[in-house]
Design goal:
Elements lengths: L1 E3 H8 L2 E4 L5 E3 L1 E2 L10 E2 L13 H6 L4 E4 L10 E4 L3 H14 L4 E6 L4 H12 L5 E3 L9 H6 L8 E5 L7 H9 L3 E4 L7 H4 L2 H8 L11 E5 L13 E5 L8 E5 L4 E4 L2 E4 L5 H16 L4 H9 L9 E5 L2 E5 L6 H12 L6 E5 L9 H14 L4 E5 L4 H9 L7 E4 L2 H11 L5 E5 L6 H14 L2
């Protein structure tokens, strides 16, 4: 969206240090290394970095002007605007741009499944009108405004993912974005280290309503025990396989097929949890008046992002990398996907879940129990804290001969030639910080190069 410096001054309550208020800029960048043409550069300040040091570099790369929270800046570019706080100004500018737009804002959060739900929703509503959606993990107080500021101005829908790990974070994002529609996918145990209980996680997720008008629409997972009893001023509609208020029927988890009303839908990814996420998009599409065929076209266009259920077959071994993040609920869902593979042996390579605090041992014990419950043939635990997964599987009755524990990832890598058999289906799952995609690549490379 193209703006003048005059509009910028109004949006961020800034003071023009030099330049003309009639100067135009288009889009925003916080990366001085990026090639720009008419972008505004916003130097962010953090604990370990200060973007003000790179203002001249940004201008050399094409930035037309910049914001600053310091007066002693170089005379560079066509204009400079002084603000109290550049990070706050980024959010204020995004809020200003949204108020100039006619786009319907759809906000999505949840402990598990918010990114997949976002992808399904964006794919579906794109069949109904021009759509801009969050990319990657741009779901915080920096990423969300940057997404908004990519708007060209004629969008019909803006699909925004909202993440958090502390109280108040989603409230800020909601007040900035003022969503017309909100979706909460699930209340699990992610970030329980900081919030203390699922009830507190629910409270933090419901901050998504803080910027929503009373006539907004809230879509909730009716299968979730906490979401199913939410009360609020906004209208609520439910999706879910078990709830009686707008149920769907799973026809085939493995093929991603489900029935909603009298219409059959199919998604290009396996798993009951993915069907659950897709059903939220179907319900939203129906609310917008879309036809079943339009909705199906959107579902078919879905593309998974990052290391989410990435599947490759190498030398007859099916490798499933689901290691963008992890939680008790997403581990259980991934294990069900593994259990449904048509392979003679199913192997789960599991690592710890982050941000569990005092809940680490009991929750990882439950992950281990889920391995036994889903009848996985072999469990390989990697990284020190994964011993609690091993213990949980053993306590649940899994044969100790089928459980392998590596305290260090280097030991796992050394043993790769001895761990896998032709025809195996192998799942890699752990929190992002453990970088299990590297283990996936090590196994893939071994299978590609072995004689």
């Amino acid at each position: 969206m193209q703006l003048t410096v005059h509009q910028l001054l109004e949006a961020v309550n800034g003071k023009l240090l030099f330049g003309s208020s009639d100067t135009l800029f288009r889009y925003v960048s916080t990366d001085s290394r990026a090639q720009m043409t008419t972008e505004l550069f916003i130097p962010l300040v953090g604990e370990n970095h200060d973007g003000h040091a790179y203002i001249e570099s940004a201008v050399r790369n094409g930035a037309v002007g910049f914001l600053t929270q310091r007066r002693d800046v170089p005379y560079a570019g066509n204009f400079a605007v002084l603000v109290e706080d550049t990070t706050k100004a980024l959010g204020d500018l995004a809020s200003y741009v949204l108020k100039q737009s006619h786009a319907k804002v759809i906000a999505i959060t949840g402990s598990v499944g918010k990114t997949t739900t976002r992808q399904f929703v964006a794919s579906v509503v794109a069949e109904h009108g021009k759509t801009l959606a969050t990319s990657g993990n741009f779901n915080n107080h920096i990423g969300l405004p940057l997404t908004v500021l990519k708007m060209e101005g004629d969008e019909d829908f803006l699909v925004l993912e909202m993440g958090m790990n502390h109280f108040g974070e989603i409230s800020y994002l909601s007040r900035l974005a003022a969503p017309h529609i909100a979706i909460i996918s699930l209340i699990g145990t992610s970030h329980i280290e900081y919030l203390g209980s699922r009830e507190n996680i629910l409270k933090a997720k419901l901050e998504i309503l803080d910027g929503m008008a009373d006539d907004g629409l809230l879509l909730l997972n009716g299968d979730d025990d906490l979401l199913s009893v939410v009360n609020c001023k906004q209208k609520i509609q439910y999706f879910g396989a078990k709830n009686a208020r707008y149920p769907y029927t799973i026809v085939s988890e493995a093929e991603g097929t489900f029935l909603m009303d009298t219409d059959t839908y199919q998604i290009p990814i396996a798993g009951a949890h993915n069907i659950q996420n897709a059903s939220a998009a179907v319900l939203l599409g129906k609310h917008l008046g879309m036809t079943p065929q339009q909705i199906q076209n959107g579902l078919s266009a879905f593309q998974s992002v990052g290391w989410r259920q990435k599947t490759e077959i190498v030398d007859s071994v099916t490798l499933i990398a689901d290691c963008y993040n992890a939680s008790l609920d997403s581990d259980r869902a991934a294990l069900k996907v593994l259990a449904n593979q048509k392979s003679p042996r199913k192997v789960a390579v599991l690592g710890p879940i982050g941000e569990l605090g005092d809940f680490l041992e009991p929750i990882l014990n439950q992950v281990g129990a889920a391995v036994k419950e889903t009848k996985i043939d072999c469990l390989i635990c990697v990284e020190e804290d994964s011993k609690y997964i091993r213990n949980g599987a053993s306590a649940a009755g899994m044969n100790s001969e089928n459980i392998i524990y590596f305290q260090k990832r280097e030991d796992f890598i050394k043993q790769i030639p001895n761990l896998f058999h032709p025809g195996d289906a192998v799942l890699f799952k752990a929190s992002r910080k453990y970088q299990f995609e590297e283990l996936f690549e090590h196994v893939k490379q071994h299978l590609q190069t072995k004689e």
